[in-house]
Design a protein that fits this description.
InterPro entries: AAA+_ATPase, ABC_transporter-like_ATP-bd, ABC_transporter_ATP-binding, P-loop_NTPase. Belongs to the ABC transporter superfamily. The protein has 296 residues and is α/β, with parallel strands linked by helices. The chain contains 10 helices and 10 strands. It has one domain: P-loop containing nucleotide triphosphate hydrolases (Rossmann fold). It starts with a strand and ends in a 30-residue tail after the last helix. It binds adenosine-5'-triphosphate and magnesium ion.
Length: 296
């Protein structure tokens, strides 16, 4: 479902956010994408979802070539970005219907499909509210509805449960599992919650400094000793990834994590035409000198 070879992204000014990523994800898998802040997860996801043009490498996503057939890729995938896609003022149900129409559904079909998706995610009663009047957890579930309404076969989720309470997280996991079981959906999700990765994912891919440093099942990464947190720290080290380290000389200091907008980066984005996916999340952290270790 995903196959990449040497996928890389160097931003204007020389920030090597993703150095070289080789990935294989099979149909029906739930794969957890782990890595410290600034490791290159969001940048990789934005490339895989056609929002950002790679500077090197090749990828086939859901049977379509990423570079030569981005429209083909877009039709088959859903993307829930780190920052989410729910706007503050329009009723969310209407926004999702519009999103479905953008994917080519007729009015009646879109209405029916939206109703079914919201029902499944337990959101029907909230559909008339504007995004600004939803709680964080409710908004995240609507983000998931945006990612699913056009029946993708592959779903990218960038930190879908950050900031959610334990109930909302467990609820979202349940939905994700059910989507895989009932629809055969393939899921590629990033998370910093290693209990989540352990519980939800069939397989984990750990990246650091823009390259894969370990991969395997949660049990394989744990190696029979300790928790996934222990394994993660052993693989990626204990030093903090401070903002700005890998930034180009003279660039402003690091932004708080999750704050939207990197002026330079916009120039790297794929032009707006045809961008029917959710708005992309804000990048954070930094990249630094590459070091490949772990249980490969
Ligand atoms: N548009 C951009 N222009 C310049 N540098 C960027 C841009 N976007 C991201 N970066 C840098 O690329 C590196 C990887 O960022 P990315 O957002 O992919 O990390 P991440 O693994 O998603 O981190 P987090 O866990 O904090 O979300 C960081 O050093 C970041 O500062
Ligand atoms: Mg990120």
């Amino acid at each position: 479902m995903i196959k990449t070879s040497g996928l890389a992204k160097t931003f204007k000014g020389g920030v090597e956010a993703v150095r070289s990523i080789d990935l294989t994800v099979e149909a029906g898998e739930i794969v957890g994408f782990l890595g410290p802040n600034g490791a290159g997860k969001t940048t990789t996801m934005r490339m895989l979802t056609t929002l950002l043009r790679p500077t090197a490498g090749t990828a086939t996503i859901a049977g379509h070539d990423l570079v030569t057939d981005p429209q083909g890729v877009r039709r088959r995938i859903g993307y829930v970005s780190q920052g989410g896609g729910v706007g503050p003022s329009a009723p969310v149900g209407e926004e999702i219907e519009l999103h479905a129409r953008l994917y080519g559904m007729g009015a009646a079909e879109a209405r029916e499909r939206v109703a079914g998706t919201l029902e499944r995610l337990g959101l029907t009663a909230l559909a008339g509210r504007p995004g600004g009047a939803l709680s964080g957890g409710q908004r995240r579930r609507f983000d998931l509805a945006f990612g699913l309404v056009h029946r993708p076969s592959l779903l990218f989720l960038d930190e879908p449960t950050t900031g959610l309470d334990p109930q909302s997280r467990a609820n979202l996991w349940q939905h994700i599992r059910r989507l895989r079981e009932e629809d055969g959906l393939t899921v590629f999700l990033s998370t910093h919650y290693l209990d989540e990765a352990d519980t939800l994912a069939d397989r984990l891919v750990v990246i650091d400094h823009g390259t894969v440093v370990a991969e395997g099942t949660p049990a394989e990464l744990k190696g029979g000793a300790g928790t996934l947190d222990d394994a993660f720290l052993a693989i990626t080290g204990r030093s903090l990834r401070e903002d700005g380290e890998a930034a180009e000389p003279g660039s402003p200091p690091g932004r708080p994590h999750g704050e939207p907008g990197v002026p330079d980066g916009r120039a790297d984005e794929v032009p707006a035409a045809g961008r029917t996916l959710t708005r992309s999340g804000a990048p954070g952290g930094r990249a630094a000198a590459a070091g490949k270790r772990g249980n490969r």
